[in-house]
Records
---
Amino acid sequence: MCSGWKHVDKGERVHFDYSDEELSFRKELKGFLDGELPVYFEFFDLPQQERFDRSMEFVKKLAARGWLTPAWPVEYGGSAHAPWQQMILSEEMIAHGEPRTGQYMNVNWIGPAIILAGTPEQKEYHLTRISNGNVVWCQGFSEPDAGSDLAALRTSAVRDGDEYVINGEKIWTSNAGVAEFCFLLARTNSEARKQEGISIFLVPTATPGVEVGDIDAVVHPGAFHHVVFTDVRVPASCRLGPENEGFTIVRKLLANERVGVARYHRAAGYLDRVAKWCDERGLLDDSSVIETLAHARVACDAARVLVYQVWDERTRGLHPDESAWVYRTAAVNAERAVSEAAFKLMGAEALVRHSHADNQFEWATTAGIAGGSYEMQLNSLARVLLGTKG
Amino acid sequence: MGPNDELAEELRASARKALDDRMPTTVLRQVIDTEDGIDRSLYALAADLGWLGLTLPESVGGSGGSWHELAVVLEEIGRALAPLPMIASVVVAAGAVMLAGDDEQQQRLIPGIADGSAIATGALFGASGRPDEPLAARVERRDGSLVLSGVSGFVPDAHVSSWMVVAATDGAVPTLVVVDSSAPGVRIERLDTTDVTRRLAHVHFDDVVIPSANVLASADAQHVIDELVRRAGVAIALDSVGGLERVVEITVAYVGEREQFGRKVGSFQAVKHHCANLLVFSETARVAGRAAADAIDGARWVEWAAIAKSYSGDTYTEATRIAVQCFGGVGFTWEYDIHFYMKRARLSQQLFGSPTYHRQLLTRELRSRTAD
């Protein structure tokens, strides 16, 4: 098996190129995507409902080709033999506006969490639906007072016979408006240390007492929601994994969330547009223009090789927390560098609302906060480096 | 500290009170949702308080004050994010007529600016609104009249203007003409831009006839345009100084309240450094901005103008980025105010010359001085 990225090891060479097999997969995938979807920017610009409808239709086709969950074990609907296919998929998906919309989360870590900790019934029910591309999930993690300090969450799930009764509020829940299930973290033991009293629940959002509202955000309008749980009763069979061990499971899976979508690839795609804009105005002979473009390009490629390193470690069965943190900071830097390049080169034209430059600015603004702040990633790295508790 | 400082501080206190009363961000949020996005009654108050005529001569309805006082007002406007078309009307349009117009033009056009009964603007650049690109508007003589055609991009406050100073090419050289905003052939295409506290427009000219009385009689229009870029640039730098000051305050207040991990987030060293950097940016921008305001017409004016505009442009944007980082997710909700500053900073960075443009001016200026 020839893989795209080899671990940097004694005497072993590093290959930056994909194998012929992987390249032909990329080509086949691109051909399929070009036939199914408008180019990235047009797909991303579609009105929300239309984008969602087309996504649902598209993901089923992707699943039918075996391209939705290729990295999953075969018994759960994957092909299991091609870890790098998932990386290629991730890049090509975002290059086309992430047509899986919220379903990328299912593939990257919700499904894997169920594979890791689910009962046979949960696996049978949920994994089949996820790998067929039939279901949208949202992630009920952050709360108003539990952002960076996720383990401080207060949403409670109290056992009552064969049921749990859930109360609390979640924020920043993307896709909550359309999701059928919520992957919810809730406190099941308020006496224990804060990390040790949390459990995971797979909650159908149609359950009485679940209320979804919009967060009035200045970026990605319509993308963020809050979800209020008021005396929401779910059967105990909705709990994923043992009671009070939710945080341990999530911590393992969050390494996958850190890889997330291939932000650097989308940013690099937008940078191509900025370069084209400069070219059309005859600016590519200007050394400061070239320098600005190259600086941003390097930031994107740095993030790219770092995520390949994470992926390589993962395919070898390691849990690459450290490389994932390094990658995350590089991805944020790439988002910012491309946004700054657009402002620097395009001037006021980069400030037209809902333009692609404005969109890039939004990505750059949220990049250092969503899914764990930039400063938290640095803290984690510093803790590993310096061996201090913090 | 100069002899004027007591006066300046009085002016600051009264300006802050007026803007705190009349333009808290709760009101700002209503104003930005209106069609024109400005508060005309606040503009009238600005005229009553003497802000508009501050630097205009008494002979045309002003009070003959200095940029030292104007700086105070501009800082307070930036602090409050006040949606007032003051830089466009007073600094650019009235500035152009004072620099390049004759007595008749000054007497006809300036009193209305000083008393706030008219709003004007300057359309000084090409299609991208940058001083370093060719003009895209031109004048020609046709059947004995002067006719203007073409476009001027990203013009501030054009949508509420009654007249504007337009830079256009006349053959190979630039010229400045005054255009009635409602004249036949003038089309104002409103733009929706990131900064919701200010409005811009592309202004299209389709064979607009310019009366000869509206040609500004300056031999060297390019020189006047350059000077207007410097003045507007410094005015924006001062607006940014006020904004930076407020960004420090609200960020420090937030990280002093928000708790995570059982502590105020402001007690974490990473956040402390962010706050300290905000203060460094704010203090440096203030010193540079005020030095520029006091240097106007002096030997080092060109140099200070370039320093103030380029420094404030980069630090205001960087400071607001850091501030949003300190706020975390709520930093990009409508509910909190910090995003208004982040977006105002982005537009300020680009209007009337980017930091790169002004740094290039600075280098040229320093080199020419060495050559002398």
Note: Chain B has a mean pLDDT of 96.
---
Amino acid sequence: MSYENTAMLVDESLCTGCNACTVVCKQLYELPYGIFRTKINRISSGSYPVVKDYFDKRACFHCTDAACVKACPTGACQKDENGLTMINSSLCITCNWCVTNCPFDAVQPNRTNGVIEKCTLCSGRIKADKEPFCAEVCTTRAVKFGTRREMLKLGRKRVGELKDQGYTNAYIYGEQELNGLKVLTVLTDKPENYNLPSNPKIPMSLQVWKYIPFKPLMFAVGGLALSFNAIHTRKIKNLQEKNKKDKGGK
Amino acid sequence: MSDRERLKLDRRDFIKTTVGAGLAAGIGLGVPKFVRAQEQDALPLNEESAKVVPSFCSVCSGNCAIEAYVQNGRVVHLKGNIHDQAATGRLCVKGYNALDTLYDPDRVKQPMKRTNPNKGPNEDPKFVEISWEEAIETVAEKFNEIREEYGGHAISFFHRSHPFSQRLGRAIGTPNFIAHQSTCFTTQEAAWHAMVTGSGKPWTYDLKNAKYILSFGCDLLGKAKNMHMQHVTEALRNGAKLVVLDPYQSITASKAHEWIPIKPGTDLAFTLAMIHVITEEELYDKEFVEKYTTGIEKVIPFARRYTPEWAEEITEVPADVIRKIAREFAQTPPAHIPSHKRDAAGPNYVNSTKLAQTQVLLNALVGTIDRPGGALIPRNPSLPGFNVIFPPPEFPDMVTKRIDGWDEEPIMHTYYRGNMATIADGILSEKPYPVKAALVRGYNTLTFPNAQRMTEAFRKLDFLVVCEIIPTELVQLADVVFPEPHWLETSGFANRGYNSSYPQLALRLPASEPLHNTKGFGSIILDLADKMGLGRYFEGVSGSKFDDERLKAIGTSWEEFKQLPNGLWGDEKALVPREEFNTPSGKIELYATVFEEHGFDPLPTWQPKREMPSEEYPFYFVINRPIVHKMAATQNNKIANELCPENHAVMNADKAAEMGIKDGDEVIVKSKVNEVRLKAKLIQGIRPDTVMIEHGFGHRSKALSLANGKGANDGDLIPDFTVEEFKKLRDPGAGACMSDVCLSIRKA
């Protein structure tokens, strides 16, 4: 399968929140307690007896316009040649800026290993012509993987069926959002019901930040300035204390 | 350290980080792109180089065929076998997670004996590790002592059917084989036995081809049986309609097109009214009913009294909704009412067998018994039994009266089943005779109704032997513990448990080396028989010979079977629908003559549930199983524990607000037998008069390091029975009334 134009399709209407994907992902990527690259949340709305429950498989969407990439000060978080958002942990300083700026809460600091965790869409597997694990293991086949064209076709068909069944707000999330998400999601209702922003945006601050040139250099200069400041302060303080001591001695 | 010093340190750290970051970033710029991506592309599983071992899952009785991936001697991943009709290349979450039981550091690793004579939930058993020889000898000696002094019937066995153990029991002279099914599915079994099969309930469904699925508390998606989840979602994908009646909005209910929060224990009134509508309006499948059933002429006048208006009063579901669903059910073929174990037609209420009867009846009325889109009678290969392969020598006479009263169940006594609802009283009251010892395999105290009383019963025994994989609460009460291997360490073969539309067997070879000093149950029994001086009943018997002989009967052998390329035996065959059924008339008996013959109601006359809400206990009780857990067996698994560490008293948020209970508050939930302490969880998706408690929690074994002390056991709230009380229920399905109890709830 050509890697470039691939996409994942998550059909929330057929997801039962069993977390089979979560379990296999945690097992194989050996993620410690509390760390998930994907996890399903059950969200409830309405009031008895008209209650709707939604299952939200949350993982990195691999946004075309990725806030995390814009936020990253070191270039560790980047788009790879095929549009996947990847974090190179040898460059990552775990400043957590990607974590705070992700509009989907899909990035998480892993303090046990000192890295930032997020879904890689099993990029190694895709390159080896295999599906990501969550697509391969999903019991109900709610998670599918293929070319973006195929996935969109499938998603549109499913949305049509759901609309016919009375889910009038059925929708493919990720076709347009942030210029397209690599993970498309069939929703049975409005995105807000799944805790997804209906019109996700990259924060203005990040947009400005992105255009600061020579960021590493700025950091280095800033760091030097701060070190100088620290040394200077310490010197002054030592001096003051010495003076105090001298006074007390007298 | 003074504040100032701390500040100084922090500042130093900060500076270090900042400078480091700058440098790192600088270096980063110089690194070529391909190096950056490498790390993230790492493959945690190398499918090409990993060893793939065929197995099948034993988390539940579905037996999904598995490909186990082994890397560096460690099983790292389980995959569903694509060639298995049940698994179709997938597993359920519990199957994937089975690795956590295999590698659970808390596993029972070595035969042990107790050195602290005091037994109790808070007593440390002070186990010491012993050799297998000593373990077997100790048990054999003690069993022989008890047998001589009190008779063989003073020794009881608690486990699912196992031919070796049953023969040992027969040789010892005990009828007391206690199993769990009266808490699980005997109600459904009795109805199917009488009306269709003569041999229990078929668990296979062809729901993927159904167009209308109607569930009475049957949480096919939330219980996460692999094949059920696949079938139901496939049906949904194909545009089937799913309607769920359940007091609690289960996962299946949340996926349904309609969720009807019916009043607990009144499902029977709903189904009776459905039969009324379908017969009155002549909506049933006349061809099927005429050709394959008997008794419709008795059903029609019987159902006349059960109008939807009558049912509305009982169920709190509007009559027009009942009418609409009855019509849709009859007019959207194929339509089916599935039922799997502990749902409304499982042994939850005293009227559950009758509900199961109406479900068989309705399924027959729309012609989905052994037809596409409905329940299928399993097409398993016919394998010879243990006694055919190894004919037994003559057994001595023995007492046939059982301690749990199962021998007196008019219909169900013919099955290898038992009554967990009466056994505690049997042991404690010593009626009809004292029981002194028990060998338990795979059951835990949490499994029993009134678990606290059952704990007392186990404590009363002179001698308790437990075969286990993990150190459960019952292990803590044992005198001798036999560690068993995890199924990923064993070999064997199995039918396609819950999805057998053509004969197919799955092969199991050891995916893992034995991790601990364990022994399989069959071998334990053979050793025990030998040491007890009962070896003559097992001449020539071995597990491998048993497997080999059974396979020879279907034209293969273990040697040949082991080489199966896909790990599966049996080619796909098209389904040939049954023309005949195993009842006295050879047809599906809508009017159950088998029930009539034993003095039971041949038609499911309305009967209310046993216990009704009162001022003292105003709430109905229902349970649900968290999707990641298998009963009480997986709470100590690392990931399952992380995803779902404890259970709650789940209640309606508005009702709780009225009572001043907030989300997360500690509450005391009380029934007439016991009380438990839980955190309240407030939701909208439950009836205001109902409390739901997730099953499987409340572990108190300190040896289960993750599960211990989390949540509480719903089983503590469920009443048990004396044999006399139980007989008075007059239930042909001998259901243990697992939810037929009411609760009070207050802030702790």
Note: The radius of gyration of chain B is 28 Å.
---
Amino acid sequence: MSLLKVTIDGKTIEVEPGTTILQAARQIGPDVAPPAMCYYTKLKTSGGYCRTCLVKVTKGSEKDPRPMPKLVASCRTTVMDGMEVQNYSSEEVVEARKGVVEFLLINHPLDCPICDQAGECHLQDLSYENGRSKSRYEFKRRTFEKIDIGEKIQLHMTRCILCYRCVKVADQLTPGRVHGVINRGEVAEISTYIQNAVDNEFSGNMIDVCPVGALTDKTFRFKSRVWFLKPVDAHRDCDQCSGKAVVWKYGNEIYRVTGRKDQWGEVDEWICNTCRFEKKSPSDWVEEGPRKINRHSVISQNHYGSKTRFVASPESLPQKQLS
Amino acid sequence: MGRKLLLTHDHVEGIQGYAAYRANGGYRSVEKALKKMTPDEVVEEVKKSGLRGRGGAGFPTGMKWSFLAKPEGVPRYLVCNADESEPGTFKDRYLMERIPHILIEGMITSSYALGANTSYIYIRGEYFYVARILENAIAEAYANGWLGKNILGTGYNLDLYVQVGGGAYICGEETALLESLEGKRGNPRIKPPFPAVAGLYGCPTVVNNVETIAAVVPIVNDGGDEYAKIGIGRSTGTKLISASGNINKPGVYEIELGVPVEEFIFSDEYCGGIANGKRMKACVPGGSSVPILPDYLVCKTAAGEDRLMTYESLSDGGFVSGSMLGSGGFIVYDEHQCIVRNTWNFSRFYHHESCGQCSPCREGTGWMERVLHRLEKGEGHMSDIDLLVDVAKKIEGNTICPLGDAAAWPVAAAIRHFRHEFEYHVLHPDKIKDPKHGYREPIMPVKPEPVTA
Amino acid sequence: MAEVIQGTRAFNPSTRAGIQFSEEALKTIEALMKRYPEGKHKSALLPVLHVAQAEADGWLSPEVMDYVAELMKLQPIEVYEVASFYSMYNLKPVGKCVLEVCRTSSCWTRGAEDVVDYIGKKLNIREGETTADGMFTLKTVECLGACGGAPMLQCGAEYHENLTEAKIDSLIERYRAEGRRKCYTDLDYQNTK
């Protein structure tokens, strides 16, 4: 089949049929790629919920050039030949996204100073880059109790933005899902409902896919700020997963182990819980070299004044500090 | 007296049962369709009739039917949406309770037209007793050979089931309904794919409202052209209107589309005027989701023309000075009703009914409700009014399903037409207990002149 | 409503001990599951939960839901997810007669608040509470599709429209005299318009 031509913010690319607008935008580059909080390439049926990736389709296709009447979720809308899309170049999109960010934040605790996710939190990045500086919400924020779902994972529902990624991990990676979304509307929550442990060899991946600090690694809890650690690509022989991971070190000590995340914050390969939680000795791993973390977080940029949307240079702050 | 097509035999004794229904011409459309028409011919008649979806959106039914994908070897489904939950709407309950067989008959004829061999009626759980009535009617239809295998010896098979819901407004949205029918949470699906391509169990599916399905009966009996003769322009046929609020005669009325709104509200044939000798302040003509109209825009359009009960006339003026026919949930408010309170009431409803799947609706509906509640109590600020407008705007159009729009529109419209009432709540927190606080003289006086039938 | 919303996690790990539905209920559940195509029996979950609720004192405990999951060969979480989504399933114990008063626009404009106040005073309970004898629970609900008969309330399968104080009095008296649980699945429905 022939390739389809799509133009996003004035930049044109040809993509395979079936490609979504978001994927096409990512192929063009970070300048035009919409942010995504719930979509995750490796998880089937993910996306569409958070509405941060809304874009404006100004021309439907070559055949039917009519614009689409509403903004569309770029992660769930496939490209048509000749389609023209506006992302950052559309005032309407920028405004709508500002609204979405505000919605995501009104009930968020904003407890970044005590959150383990700080520094690699997608919600932090999103609000820094697309949000407004002050919230107009003046009511009490909703809160939930913290619970352990499984021995090594803590669920802090108050921080959750209901992206459904962890539910999809459980559905698609593990047998017999025991956690899900209960209740509805504003009080919907990720839960096991009754006290129950999410207990299987791949459950730890829920931590990696969580865009915020709702699911965190208990073995790393309050150990260190991520930006004080040095990420190193490493691998080991594992009979359950590829064994390819990133070990986060302070000095010679391994503080935590995660999957290897790409430019968009998505893991390349799932890793098993043994690699993630049990293998914390340097002798467990064969180190490959420093991991280039392509992060654009406010913290790794370390210049709060300028609102740049761009991905930081590969030599981002953590490595500079520690190497 | 307008023509009636659905409630013709409403007052016939025992019409709830099969014998009386059949004796009054029931199931003729099934005989005609199955014996004398091809499925495509039935679809053609529905197209000719100009019938538009009676659930609220008003999409042409014939066109919806013709979009149904027909891949080889894949079952197709017809699902009846009886999840009537739009505040102000109770017409489907009335129809199903009084004349259940017209829905069963419509389901058989429509299923035949669409090539469905299994069909479901998804009814809201609160209507459990109505589901019983339908199940009894279905049992009677089976017993008399209208359902099951080889119906009327034509080789056409159809099984029909009733499924009760669990209590969720959102399941009136067709993809949420399908999710619920599959035994899941009623979270709307992300479209595309549309149900016509991948609906129930991933198979091509048509979802139609109760009244729409029932209207297929007279359309097949008398022909689409005959049906299209009733009404005005693209608003053809008759429509069930659920009238409620501060009127003398709340109830379900079958009207010919095109009746003047003034006649509908004030004539004794329909609502019988405003209750307790009061005056009208506002009207929500199509269910809670549609924009509220102030008295002077109810019976006349902004251009000064008579407003009619049609899709077009009610939406004349767009959202600036018009509204929508919607589901026909016609709510009238008298001069003593507080618009701020009522808007808060609607907002609480949407907050309660948001499924929580996408962020603008999950977070925005609760936010709007809280701000409105604050205003209603007299604890709001002037800036709250514009904040509400802005929050509504940020929700509208940015959600997965239309519930976001439905939550935003009533708030935006109430502020558009009744901003003075919101301001009054901020400025006079001590006086808002006075029931007349929001009243002002209508710009165009409304004559309560009873029209003789 | 409460401004701070807490999650529901008051339950202990479930035990299925002691839960058994009646023969009739089990038969109904089996028949419900057969209404759907092969492998799609999960479709019956909503109607089955109604049957379960009627069997289990009007509410769905985690144990009851686990039992439903077992009967329908589903993961328990699938049942929790669904039961907690819909408003008709009670996840906490309720009285024998749950008086569900509609509070949406049309009923509201015609005195829904007065109905709630009147019942509350009469039974000496507030909204959401159950009488000490376990007979009545007072609840407000969103639009029940009976706007033409506003104000109205639902109890079990019954709709009671055009409420007046006298009507509420006789209703409560009747329920007290009957003394039995009212369920959505009740067959002996009489619409008292």
Note: Chain B has three domains: 18-225, 232-334, 339-427.
